[in-house]
Amino acid sequence: MKYDDPAAPAASQTRARRIRAAARYISLSVATLAITLSPSAADTISETVRLVGSEAGGEFGWSVHVSGDAMVVGAPIWSATTPTIGAYVFEQQDGQWTQTAALAHPTGGTGDFGSSVAISGDTLIVGAEGENFLSGGAYIFVRGNDDSWTHLTRIVPSDSQIIDSFGRAVAILDDMIVVGASGSNNYEGSAYVFERQNDGSWMQAAKLTPSDGESYDFFGTGVSISNDTISSGNVLVIGAHVKNNYDGAAYFFEQQSDGSWVEAAAIAGSAGSHLGTSTSISGDTAVVGAWQGNAHVFQRQGGVWTETNQLTAVDFYGNPCGTTSVSVSNNVMAIGASGCSAALAFERPPEGQWAEVGELVVTDGGGWGSLGHSISVSGQTVLAGTHSVGALQGNAFVFDLPSNNACPSDVTGDGVVDSYDILEAIDAWGPCSGCEADTNGDEVVDVVDLLAILTAWGSC
């Protein structure tokens, strides 16, 4: 959920003193309402904790992902002279985020191991897009009964070629993994779907390309996955940030009952905006970042993906910062604008519109350069990476957002936690991104959510 471009300008080291969010509500491509918000000091949210890797150096925070009570932070291994740890796992222990694993390349290689990361339950994936002459690879780790993380396997596409950059972006939801390969087929790009088998192994299930794909689209720069609220399958949103001379594009793919994938929508970016630099989806809501533009919010309405909002970050002088990273989880959204070293959080109340919660600011003196290069949200927790400070030593910051929902266990929203909420949780049981029964935002409805409902039983 981040974007990196070798041609991108160095992030400004001047603190953005004012962040403005502009929301446009669009119907049939016509702007019908525009709202501009200018946060005051009261609208800022300070970090709860600053995370650093146990190994000095490295671009810690280049990639991040949080899911429930676990998070993973990437620190890519660019060369043999950089640190050997490419990904760090942090977990909630006694109310504190504690490092529980430091993952090195399984074979001692480099290859940009840690340039992309994702975690779901007891499985995490680390991308290494630069290994083997940029053909790339991705490594799957699993958590055992003793809570330790061990390497399970390396996955590569069946038609792997040099310069594919397989592993540029990764996403995981339960038993499905999606990996972007933005350099394949002369940089047209592609995305690969892998599924976990009954014996625990992972097999390639599909290769996805856009219907209007061309060379140098860079399809696969951003990938995200969610369960489909309409069918029993899943939904993907994949970015192609260089398409049409840097306008960019975003593509929605929906899984059919037979397991196949169908392109459901193709969204073109505005001139030079780089739409598709980052993508995120949760249920029927998706957000797509544009490196030189806004964060575009889409909602599925009547089976059709429609743009509903645009969110913009601007610097002190009113210049747009661009959107380098985006993330959405249920009714919470976060966007990063590392060009201004800024991050913003938004929340959507039940049956309401997206409203800004506040600007995420760092008070720790450890540095904040490039804040928002990577960002991830789960429940009310936001994890934002800085990617580099000083001698390539990055940081990641955890922010706990205030909530307009005083009782997340009230799944039905009727003011009472009762048997109806239990029935809703049972009906949604299993992988369920974007559903109200997922009380802790880890994209799975399970016994943890059921216990939360039972604990809050009664008027709420």
What would you call the quaternary organization? single chain
Low-confidence stretches: 2-42
Helix content: under 10%
What's the overall geometry? globular
Question: In the CATH hierarchy, what is the architecture of the largest domain at level 2?
Answer: 7 Propeller
CATH T-level fold name of the largest domain: Methylamine Dehydrogenase, Chain H
The beta-strand count equals 35
Query: Which radius of gyration do the C-alpha atoms yield?
Result: 20 Å
CATH superfamily of the largest domain: Integrin alpha, N-terminal
Question: Given the helix and strand composition, which structural class is it?
Answer: mainly beta
What amount of the residues lies in strands?
A: over 45%
- Could you name the CATH class of the largest domain? Mainly Beta
Query: Span between N and C termini?
Result: 35 Å
Mean pLDDT: 84
Describe the strand arrangement of the main beta sheet, using strand numbers. 3-28-27-26-25
The number of helices is 5
Q: Main sheet, how many strands, which sense, barrel?
A: 5 strands, mixed
